Amino acid sequence: MTHARLHVRTDDGDCPCQLFAPAIGEGPWPAVIVYMDAGGIRPAIEQMSRRLADAGYVVLLPDLFYRYGPYGPFVPKQVFAGDFRAVLGPLVATTDNLKAAEDSGALLAMLDARGDVVGRRVGALGFCMGGGMAIAAAGRWPDRFAAVASFHGGRLATDAPTSPHLFAPMLEAELYVAAAEDDASYPPDMAERFEAALDAAGVRYRAETYPAAHGWMKPDFPVYDHAQAERGWRAMLDLFGRTLKGSADAAS
């Protein structure tokens, strides 16, 4: 696995990014953009990006809190032991689904300029707040995203004008939506509303509820569940394998 740090110029400034590529083989490979959770950029999400790269993808990890400025890195177990909203709230307030979707245009342009990326269609992977951002990005750039995987994404169908479910009519990507049990940020009635929007728009998707708590995929979260995380990885790699590696669309 190869690793590089770079900056991508967006309409609002320079977004620090990390890029991970497979260590074995010459490529080119399909690309996946990782949309972080509210804990920001830290070793755990870098570790997950490396693992995805080792599975045969060029992985772009942008720091979507770039509008805030320098921070952290945070240790979730310490943050959640106190008033996490006071710590993370000011950073989260600097971005939203629409801003992340617009930022994605610059991220896609950067991937387009690389010789080790195959095709125009990419994947999106989002965790927690990043789940909604990934869906919004795929709706904003429908011809560029082949697949979206959202893990314990919150607030996917609300009355806010930035709600991810409003992007359903624009989506061309296939979605995998993995929810947590007893998740206040994505209760059953919200899941029904979100899935109804996908159904009405004819979106290809699979939705599953895991017997785990919100944040179970993240190895540095207090609620990390190894068995359910591995299940999530299998579903994610199946989705990206079919849509990015196994589809003729990925090379077009």
UniProtKB/TrEMBL annotation:
<dbReference type="Pfam" id="PF01738">
    <property type="entry name" value="DLH"/>
</dbReference>
<keyword id="KW-0378">Hydrolase</keyword>
<dbReference type="InterPro" id="IPR051049">
    <property type="entry name" value="Dienelactone_hydrolase-like"/>
</dbReference>
<dbReference type="InterPro" id="IPR002925">
    <property type="entry name" value="Dienelactn_hydro"/>
</dbReference>
<dbReference type="InterPro" id="IPR029058">
    <property type="entry name" value="AB_hydrolase_fold"/>
</dbReference>
<dbReference type="GO" id="GO:0016787">
    <property type="term" value="F:hydrolase activity"/>
</dbReference>
<protein>
    <submittedName>
        <fullName>Dienelactone hydrolase family protein</fullName>
    </submittedName>
</protein>
<feature type="domain" description="Dienelactone hydrolase">
    <location>
        <begin position="28"/>
        <end position="243"/>
    </location>
</feature>
